[in-house]
Amino acid sequence: MTTQGEQGATPPVAAPRRLVRPLERANVAGVAAGLAEHTGVSVWVIRGVFVLLGAWQLVGLAAYLALWLVIPPATTGHAAPGVDAASRRGMRQVTNASSGVRRDLGQLAAFALVWAGLLWLVQLLGRGLAPQTLAIALLLATGLGLVWWQADRAGGSVREAADGLRGWTRSLARHWSTVAAHGVAACCLAGAVALVVLEGPSSPPTLLGGLALLLGGLVLMAVPWVLRAQRALAQVREEKLLSDARADLAAHLHDSVLQTLALIQRQADHPREVVRLARRQERELRAWLYGSDEQAATLRAALQEAASDVEDRFPVSVESVTVGDDPALTPALGELVKAAREAMTNAAKHSGASVIDVYAEVNEDVVEVFVRDRGRGFDLDSVPEDRHGLRGSIVERMGRHHGTARITSDPDRGTEVSLEMKR
Question: Whole-model pTM above 0.85?
């Protein structure tokens, strides 16, 4: 069955670009690369700004760590269906997004040396932090950076990260570098706490300050792992939804499409039956994919539904086209559709034609429907009185609702039923 051409689709609105950290282009954490990609500014300029601000009382270093914490790492989207299926079946290796990172160590060393020189100059001029405060800040930054860097590049699957403490422990122990980094970070934190406690006056505020530093450092070290676990849980939920959708699709294909294909194989010697089965399956699949109302609410939908019903009951093809407006199905238009359905049924049963054309034209004050076949026509005067399909279901039905029906038939040219109803 052919329906009216689909209307022009509205172009999709581009989603706003998110600020993320592209780990594959990162020298440290990808903060500068992410800002450069998001703003369009050169990554060299952004890295230079961080270096200059970091030399003055470590402002740039604090800003970098804060952005590192709040900007999520970039995640790869879903692969093409074939590639995705091959990955699920283990036919291709899936690597972590950060596993193939190639850092420019020369550039990283150059920036580090420039920053160290500027920091030394600022401290020499007396514009920097107190030596004890500077040492504590550098120890904390080093420890946090090591832990967060490992959280970004931790091995293990997504499900391990979403498995709570056990998954975190397995991921932590997967490589020696991860354990070593956490050990060094713990030493840095302990050194920072020791500087606060031992270098300060022996008083309760000093001890409380050391305790607060210890607890705050532990919390900050755990934050990226918690965020990683949350993102992993969200990904697991998304994969579960996709898996359920695939299972539903597979079940529907088995119950409908595959069964229809089996019927087509058995009916290979009957072309009309094959066409009927294929068209019926096409309608069912379209209804399942795009949804359909339980009951047609407009004229176009009602005519399409009537044509589909005739195609299901008879080995014919009904080509249905509706032009003009698509008015709501009023009681009068409902009777018009019933008459058109009866005309389609009569053509399918008696004309011998394989194709029936249905053309509906909606004007401002009247609706016209034409049902035409090119099969065997008949003589209207020779129709028996007991043939209620033509008289009762078409002509008299239209007359009772202030409509008209005209039937034109020729033995060699087929039959046309013209129906007209006021809106």
Answer: no
